[in-house]
Specification:
Blueprint lengths: L10 H10 L6 E7 L5 H14 L9 H5 L5 E3 L5 E2 L20 E8 L1
Antiparallel strand pairs: 1-4, 2-4, 3-4
Length: 110
Amino acid sequence: MLHFIPDEDEPWQLVATLADAMAPGSYLVLCHGTSDGTPKTARAVKDVYDRSVTTPLNLRCRAGILRFFDGFDLVEPGLVFIPQWRPESLGDVPKDASSYGNLVGVARKR
């Protein structure tokens, strides 16, 4: 849902507030639309959302998404495109994983 919260509404602070209430050792799991990867895909996805929902889509770059994990340690394989997150086999990962348009990560609170 974070990709529906614009920067001016301080989504990083919202996550930080939730993180403050989490016990050390807890996990944060995020899947976020990204502007990284295939520009054509990002543009197409944003266009669809902008036409079909009243809340605009806020795609963020990798660095912007990583900010949500401040105070956490990412577990392997880190912040990656959806099909790269622990696939059963390397054959399950498409040639262009960025075409999925979302980065996912799991991190443990320090």
